[in-house]
Specification:
single chain, 85 residues, two-stranded antiparallel ribbon, 29% strand
Length: 85
């Protein structure tokens, strides 16, 4: 589907190149099929003196849901952006 934004011309005047940036990420995701209940994603720093960080918490209402967890490294996102913009 095309998203129409007022004042933005549709189409392009110059060639546009796209690269899919996925290193691990979704391809290395962990997942589990679950039922009704609660999900809590928690990050534990390497330094055990640091407290855990809750990333997300939510109620799962459906009888069957897939809970998926993955991380995306941001180490080279800025370099990649300079190539495109």
């Amino acid at each position: 589907d095309t998203i129409h934004i007022p004042g933005i011309k549709l189409g392009f005047d110059q060639p546009v190149f796209f690269e899919r940036h996925a290193v691990g990420g979704e391809y290395g995701a962990g997942w589990k099929s679950v039922g009704k209940g609660r999900v809590l994603s928690t990050f534990f720093p390497d330094d055990i003196k640091e407290p855990p960080i809750i990333i997300d918490g939510r109620q799962v209402e459906d009888n069957e849901s897939a809970v998926v967890v993955y991380d995306n490294p941001l180490d080279n996102v800025e370099d990649l952006a300079h190539i495109f913009f």
